[in-house]
């Protein structure tokens, strides 16, 4: 059986923990702690401080081990640790929060430097805000053509599965 290490990253409150909880077939490992900064506490009560972990069996031959990173830059040492030996990266971005796009761009560049693994951007539509389109995001973040942008709902299993299948397709292309 082939095991694929996948990293799910993105800015604070993008939906990374939800993404993993939605798709995992095991009880997820979640390292949440209360938020300590006022600007974060106004958004949500807890945050990932080390990693999240889930697993999904794709078929008889393939299993994905999914590692979620903390979203804040102060935890970027975990980004480096978790990206080691990763075969693919999902950059999850809240499509309704334009204030984090510059941070997401920095994260994209960080992972492009840290790993040669394929990257997909999942544009998460999980709230009632006005959503940015894939085309707008591509222009704002100057995303290269080689990185697909996929619409996603981190609360919907089929949507999460589609993101992971696209990433797995890119990984298999790289292996060929």
Structure description:
This protein is α/β, with parallel strands linked by helices and 176 residues long. It has one domain: Rossmann fold, CATH 3.40.50. It is built from six helices and seven strands. The chain has a seven-stranded mixed β-sheet, with helices on both faces. 39% of the residues are buried.
Give a nutshell description of this structure.
This protein is of the alpha/beta class. It contains 6 helices and 7 strands; from the N terminus they run βαβαββαβαβαβα.
The H-level CATH homologous superfamily, spelled out, is P-loop containing nucleotide triphosphate hydrolases
Helical stretch tally: 6
User: Please, how many domains?
Assistant: 1
β-strand percent reads 25-35%
Helix content: 25-40%
Oligomeric state of shown chains = single chain
Q: Given the C-alpha coordinates, what overall shape results?
A: globular
Major β-sheet strand ordering: 2-3-4-1-5-6-7
Q: Kindly provide the name of the CATH class.
A: Alpha Beta
Order of helices and strands: EHEHEEHEHEHEH
Cα Rg: 15 Å
Could you describe the largest sheet, including whether it forms a barrel?
7 strands, mixed
First CA to last CA: what distance?
Answer: 18 Å
> How many beta-strand elements?
7
Instruction: Name the structural class.
Output: alpha/beta
CATH-derived architecture? 3-Layer(aba) Sandwich
Low-confidence stretches: none
Fold-level CATH name? Rossmann fold
Round the mean pLDDT to the nearest integer and report it.
Answer: 88
């Amino acid at each position: 059986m082939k095991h694929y290490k996948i990293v799910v990253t993105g800015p604070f409150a993008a939906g990374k923990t939800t993404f993993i909880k939605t798709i995992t077939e095991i009880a997820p490992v979640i390292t949440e702690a209360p938020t300590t900064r006022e600007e974060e506490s106004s958004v949500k009560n807890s945050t990932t401080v080390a990693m999240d972990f889930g697993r999904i069996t794709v078929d008889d031959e393939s299993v994905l081990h999914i590692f979620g990173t903390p979203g804040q830059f102060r935890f970027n040492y975990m980004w480096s640790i978790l990206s080691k030996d990763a075969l693919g990266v999902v950059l999850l971005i809240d499509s309704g929060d334009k204030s984090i796009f510059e941070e997401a761009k920095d994260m994209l560049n960080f992972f492009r430097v840290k790993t040669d693994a394929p990257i997909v951007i999942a544009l998460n539509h999980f709230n009632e805000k006005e959503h940015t389109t894939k085309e707008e995001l591509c222009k704002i973040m100057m995303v290269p053509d080689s990185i697909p942008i996929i619409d996603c709902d981190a609360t919907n299993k089929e949507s999460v599965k589609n993101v992971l299948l696209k990433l797995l397709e890119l990984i298999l292309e790289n292996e060929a």
